[in-house]
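does this look right to u?? uridine-5'-diphosphate version
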Amino acid sequence: MRPTLDASPLAHSLPLVAPACIDPAAAPLGSGIAASAAVHKAALPHVLFVDQSGQLGGAEFALLQLAEHYPSHMEVVLLADGPFRLRLEALGARVQIINDASVSGIARQASALNCLRVLPGIVRQVRAIAARAQAFDMLFVNTQKALVLGALGKALHRKPVVWYQHDILTREHFGRVQLAVVKWAVRLAVDQVIVNSRASAKSLAALTGRAADTAPVVYNGIDASAFNCVDGTDMGMLRQRLGLPEHAWLAGLFGRLAPWKGQHIALEALTRLPDAHLVLVGAPLFGEDAYAQRLRDEASALGIAERVHFAGFQDDIPAWMKAMNVILHTSTEPEPFGRVIVEGMAAGRPVIAAAAGGVTEIVRHGRNGWLVKPGDAAVLADAIGVLRNDPALAQRLAQQALHDAQAEFSVDQYVQRMMDALNKAVKRRDGEANAQTSP
Ligand code: UDP
Ligand code: GLC
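got this back:
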């Protein structure tokens, strides 16, 4: 059982923004595009999407929103099975699993020797993807392994390859071999890169020599209506429902448990905030179980275990976010985009975020959120203190954040921009093909 703290006078001192519910029936949780008439389905190319993961990470949520938009025009190939498949199928998408245990084992810091060992598995997957791609207008690769397999099969499938790049391609995040493989896959076989932020585009340019402006920026979209439809005005009731302490002052940190997501920085910051609680929502999705255990051990060693709540992976992110007084983002390496930041904004809660990567394209310090130096627990604790002690400032930030999330990061905008980029890629390819055949 989770212990609750004595009622704190500051527990509910942050005025909370409670937006009106737009239309829950028309836009079920996680969608936001079901009611959209903005995109003309007839004009859409038929797309084979490929993603390496069966888990639900940010890249997979971004793909879910595309799948939801036009299930009849697409199919998804996954290189691993998992909850992502179930979510895709629930939307009516056709999913095929092309799995190979040896290839699944390749790590981010892959060595050249490892790559050689898994060669037969790679060849099998390349062939299977290329064969499936014959029935589509293009191949949309959503992760790096998918990129490499799609690129290697280019001579077989001869379809335009579009890569939605979700990563910042630097040594902070990836090994030398992996970066070299990605660089050559892009140079030799990718017709169009679409990036999730300008920061990701910059890293692409530095790695491949392709000008950053050749890759359109398509920011992820967040379904504001899913947030609007959670009533966060009665905090007590909401927290009771989620099993959280009703009267404590809660800082929420959302995202998979992984060292670079910096949950340990939040733990350290909590030691400087005597009566605040920290709620960690998320699970180790990609094998970071040792880090998850380290966080629990650290919470005990620091004497704050009573004030740290490990919630595990949760589906109802809008409700969990609305139960918080402040939302934290603590990545120690530059975050390529950061869906959780926009979600915190859409929840109408003040957001404190680590100022690096795509984050600075979302958060304007002192206007719609609060930026802090990445990896610095003392600075983070100070920032939490500032917002806790100045409810008027916190409310102003939250109000502007809610507006900006809806105006700049809607699902409609996301889907429309993505469709425009895909249509352009197909047209350019058709133009090139015509130019080659005409005398
Ligand atoms: N998420 C979730 N349940 C959890 C933790 C996270 O559904 O328990 C979602 C979160 O709402 C967000 C995504 O996972 O949409 C994480 O995406 P983000 O871009 O923040 O980070 P990534 O994991 O892709 O690096
Ligand atoms: C990746 C990035 C994350 C981004 C997400 C969606 O998983 O780590 O920053 O928000 O993709 O583009």
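The pocket of uridine-5'-diphosphate (ligand 1) is lined by residues 56-59, 61, 254-256, 281-282, 313-314, 317, 337-340, 343 (CB under 6 Å). idk if thats expected tbh
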